[in-house]
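thought: fold this chain, then report.
action: predict
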Amino acid sequence: MDKYGIVRHLWVYGLLALAALCLLPFFGAEATPPGVVLELFSKERSISAEILLHHRLPRVLLAFGCGMGLAACGAALQVILENPLAEPFVLGIAGCAAVGASLALSVPALFLYWGPFSSVQVLAFGGAMAAVGLSLKMAARFGGATETVILAGVTVNILCGALMLLIRYSVDPSRLVVMDRWLMGGLDVVGWESLAAMLPFLLVGSFFLFPLGASLNLMALDSGLALAHGVAVDQVRFRVCLATGLLVGASVAVSGPIGFVGLIIPQLVRRISGPDLRLGLFCSALAGGSFLAFCDMLARTLVAPTEMPVGILTALIGGPVFLRMLWARSV
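observation:
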């Protein structure tokens, strides 16, 4: 695709993201008319303006950031693992990050704060990095065989599920409700603290990941060809792993394990905009952020005045899509 085509596609996805960020904060159980935006700049605000400022806006931005990171990581993982079904949830990366975050949430001695940051993010990052490393080892050991890598991810997810049950069994019963809601994947936040804690991880992870589009294009064709063209293949893989640990760990720490965004969105972007990763990483990020923000809007309106954890919606959408992809590959 020429540079004009890349710019045109980026404009389309950018407008989609802008529409999501501008419109979705006004939807929810409590009606929020657009006119309350003017009250945000005044000292006296109505209840609707307070809801928009301290609940809806940070929530939509948080959903967008989580979806952006998950989708971009999914697009990159599918290349370095040579596996079109790779994504953070299926490979057990989100599950390992959830185990690390759950340990910090359930063990008081491990629950530490450093300003807006906490040990939840550190342990989630460590769990995500361990799972990424395992996926790379399995892919290298078995030549990138799709079935083997996916089976390893399923096994890791089962093991993480068992560890989560053990943590739930051992934790103080007063914490169980909070943990269960978090494990379902939710973005029910009040205030800007969660977004402030996630933003540095999002920026650093994006810095490592998004400049790799051209190198990932060559690796998608053949790792040996990429090496012959001067691509430092091992360095690219390391940067993708580090970015995945940062982005997935940060997302899981604030929202719980949200699945299938990293699978559905890169596949959809690839079909619409082609396989060029110089474009695909950015478009997947914009589309993934818009998709998760839209799912979160549905989660808080479908069963109003209560709300549904957004992880349930993404699983209901992504599960059938994943099975359909597996079925298509077996034919």
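thought: worth noting. Residues 47-80 form the longest helix (34 residues).
final: tokens above.
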